[in-house]
Amino acid sequence: MIAAMADASYGKSVFHIERYQLAVQSKGHALIGQYDKKLRREADFAKRAALREQANREIADMLKQETADTLGKVLFELSSQMKNSYSRSDA
Known about the structure:
Helix content: over 70%
Number of helices: 3
Shape: elongated
Distance between the termini: 32 Å
Structural class: mainly alpha
Largest sheet: none
Number of strands: 0
Radius of gyration: 20 Å
Order of helices and strands: HHH
Oligomer: single chain
Strand content: under 5%
């Protein structure tokens, strides 16, 4: 959805997309590193499984937040280019 809307307003939306990609990439790597350290210290199988589920949830939540934020920004750029008028020939 982001790509379809950004295509119509590419010049004004491209930096939102680039910031989104960088933010998701850096936050994702940080979360993976954080949970890798926790998993190395934990020996119990059940606790390791719970840590992996917690990591997945945290990554998914971060991704939803970043995606919603970027979607809003791209939608704003696209709606700013809309023409708020009708042609008399449509009547």
